[in-house]
Amino acid sequence: MKIGIPKEIISQEYRVSVNPETTKMLLQSSHELFIQSGAGVDSGYPDKDYLELGCTIVDSASEVFDRSELIVKVKEPSFEEVEMLSNKAIFTYLHLSSSKELTQKLLDCNVTGLAYETVVINNQTPMLKPMSEIAGRLSLLDSIELLKKSNGGKGKLIAGTSLAEPANVLIIGGGIVGLNAMQMSLGLGASTTLLDVNNDLLNEIKNNYPAVNVAESSEEVIRNLLPMIDIVVGAVLTPGGKPPTVITRDMLSLMEPKSILSDVSVDQGGCFETSKPTTHGNPTYEIDNIIHYCVKNIPSAVPFTATNALNEATKPFILKFANSGLDGLFNDEKLLMALNTYKGKLTNEEVALAHSLEFTDSKSI
């Protein structure tokens, strides 16, 4: 299969979808790779690393798309990229529940859209997990920086001191993002509370981390906690779908001024009513005197780590699709879960529900 690797184009996206190790594996399986010049530089991989392995380096994204059957990316494609994908396939984080316009564009252009984040195996999202680990850790670390008075925050030290209380951190969601944010919070000495709707999960977390406070998540519990919280990490996940709203705008008035809302779910549409996507260059905004941190591509801040972690998770799926093509896709139950759009049909039910669009079961195609 002819596989194209374009340079990521969204603001401050430094990751590359295929590192040299994955490249070598694909080439050894007799696939051709077309790499846009500079695609891997920000992750620590110059063009020569790919050239020496036998890839073709091309100057423009348009040439990558023209010469490829499958495009492998990190982030969702732009509308311009979708037009170049007409009747081709893409494997990437699509996050279609956050954009009806992108969903419709993929359908209109007959794109075979494969999404890393919609493959769920044993209640885990294997291709989302490594980025969730990084995002959870960085969401807490970045929020700590925002607590500093010099950065416009409350002026609190996360761990406090022997004579001053630590900051109070609330994490909503006990999945991979929430667990990693919690580990960082506890390790840095914050007073940490984690909420989830799964009591069995909460009991397991409490047994493993006795220092954390846990409770079943509900609007009443959240409202009661907000007046004393300095940092809220929104870590709610509905695989492939838009997460529920757990903090509404009217609830902001319960919080102290300059408290921080960090919405890690924003790439799926966000779990706070007041969330909107931001960038690493301009990561925050304020509503009702509450600081919002809603960067869509948090892991891009550490591209070397993120690229290599991503590749460890995605390369078996990319190789499987490259080796077997569409015929193999429809005969592989796990890989088929990645299929979101195909021949103008929407094959992900969560996305269909999010946008009130017609759903077609991929197993019936």
List keywords for this structure.
single chain, 365 residues, alpha/beta, Rossmann fold, 7-stranded mixed beta sheet, 15 strands
Overview of the molecule:
This protein is an alpha/beta fold. It folds into 2 domains: 180 residues, Rossmann fold (3-Layer(aba) Sandwich); 173 residues, NAD(P)-binding Rossmann-like Domain (Rossmann fold, 3-Layer(aba) Sandwich). It is 33% helix and 16% strand. β5, α5 and β6 form a beta-alpha-beta unit. The chain is globular. The mean pLDDT is 97.
Helix run count: 12
* SSE pattern, N- to C-terminal: EHEHEHEHEHEHEHEHEHEEEEHHEEH
> Structural class given helices, strands, pairing?
alpha/beta
> What is the number of domains?
2
Number of strands: 15
Q: Any guess at the CATH architecture of the largest domain?
A: 3-Layer(aba) Sandwich
Assigned CATH superfamily of the largest domain: NAD(P)-binding Rossmann-like Domain
Model regions low in confidence, pLDDT < 50 over at least 5 residues: none
Q: Main sheet?
A: 8 strands, mixed
Strand order of the largest sheet: 3-2-1-4-5-6-14-15
Radius of gyration: 21 Å
Shape: globular
Task: Explain the layout of strands and helices.
Elements: E1 2-5, H1 20-28, E2 32-36, H2 47-51, E3 56-58, H3 61-67, E4 70-72, H4 79-84, E5 89-92, H5 100-108, E6 112-115, H6 129-147, E7 168-172, H7 176-187, E8 191-196, H8 199-208, E9 213-216, H9 219-225, E10 231-234, E11 260-263, E12 284-287, E13 290-293, H10 303-329, H11 333-336, E14 339-342, E15 345-346, H12 349-355
Parallel strand pairs: 1-2, 1-4, 2-3, 4-5, 5-6, 7-8, 7-10, 8-9, 10-11, 11-13
Antiparallel strand pairs: 6-14, 12-13, 14-15
